[in-house]
Amino acid sequence: MTSAAFDVLGIGNAIVDVISHADDAFLGRHGLVKGSMMLIDEARAESLYADMGPGVEISGGSCGNTMAGVASFGGRGAYVGKVRDDQLGAVFGHDLTATGVSFETPRATSGPSTARCLILVTPDAQRTMNTYLGACTGLGPDDIDVERVAAAEVTYVEGYLWDAPAAKQAVLKAFDAAHAAGRKVSITLSDSFCVHRYRTEFRDLIRSKVDILFGNESEIKALYEVDTFEAAMEATRKEAKIAALTRSEKGSVVVKGSETYAVPAAPVARVVDTTGAGDLYAAGFLFGFTHGKPLAECARLGGIAAAEVISHVGARPEQALKTLI
């Protein structure tokens, strides 16, 4: 097998985050479930935005955040995602390439505007996300360059892509191309609501195609419809080749066959905004994995990245992660 040009190629929804602080009353007024991610249409996006307080615009998207994290560790990353040729599309492209990630997906010249996620951060540091997918939904199999996929050690995708049928086909094309080249594929479950929508498909994928699974405690319990983390972990062990399961302040657990590695969370002085914690955990883990580190060390690197990102507003690192390890 030829050596990889990229450590990780990520495929995701290219989204610009608009982050604003809000109280529980605001969530109640708009019928929002704290801590959830809801898909909204353009009209709802406009009305929510109009009622939000001052916002900070930061390029995001779950997988985009992960790729920025891989680059922050000094890893070589590439990204596939769809934006429109508009102002937010230009912002997204600039922000990602400025981190050192290769982003060559052609911008759409017609159709919906670039996606945005309106993120409301409550005083308890929980984030409630309202996502207008916009141009993201234009991602399809034609956007997958199989040679680029074959040049990456791991292809990593977000479960959110299952919400758009063409994007799902793009992912399956990429997975097949990766495996044909002897590479690995990885998926994050993204959100427990996402798991409820696609539980059967996700479980089938984990058994048949996925090499590395990421999920948090609520997502993995939702996937296997069990009440305890321990039961979810044992169910995961039977189906996943490698699974990295995060548990917030309890750290993470990696399972591979009969092996189990429980790794404590990295210390963080103050939790400001939990946005991106899982995305950055995946970045640290995948950076470690593609650099030949043992699984427990991969989890430790994930914890360091997650601790950095929750110590400030925004879902991408402010400090070079390679300086923290």
Description:
- The chain has 325 residues and is of the alpha/beta class.
- It has a single domain (6-324), classed as UDP-N-acetylmuramoyl-L-alanine:D-glutamate ligase, CATH 3.40.1190.
- Helices cover 38% and strands 22% of the residues.
- It has helices spanning 24-29, 42-51, 62-72, 87-98, 146-150, 165-180, 192-208, 217-224, 229-239, 277-290, 295-309; strands spanning 6-11, 15-21, 37-39, 56-59, 77-80, 102-103, 115-121, 127-132, 152-158, 184-188, 212-216, 242-246, 252-256, 259-263.
- β10, α7 and β11 (212-216) form a beta-alpha-beta unit.
- The longest helix is centred in the middle third of the chain and has 17 residues, at 192-208.
- It is globular and about 50 Å long.
Going by helix content, strand content and strand pairing, the class is alpha/beta
Helical element count?
11
Main CATH class: Alpha Beta
CATH topology: UDP-N-acetylmuramoyl-L-alanine:D-glutamate ligase
Q: What is the distance, rounded to the nearest whole angstrom, between the alpha carbons of the first and last residues?
A: 30 Å
Choose one word for the global shape.
globular
Q: Give the tally of β-strands.
A: 14
CATH architecture: 3-Layer(aba) Sandwich
Percent helix, as a range, is 25-40%
In what order do the strands lie side by side in the largest sheet? 6-5-1-9-10-11-12-13-14
The description of the largest β-sheet is: 9 strands, mixed
Pick out the low-confidence regions.
none
Percent of sequence in beta strands = 15-25%
CATH superfamily: Ribokinase
The total tally of domains equals 1
Mean pLDDT: 94
Rg over CA atoms, rounded to whole Å, is 18 Å
H/E series: EEHEHEHEHEEEHEHEHEHHEEEHH
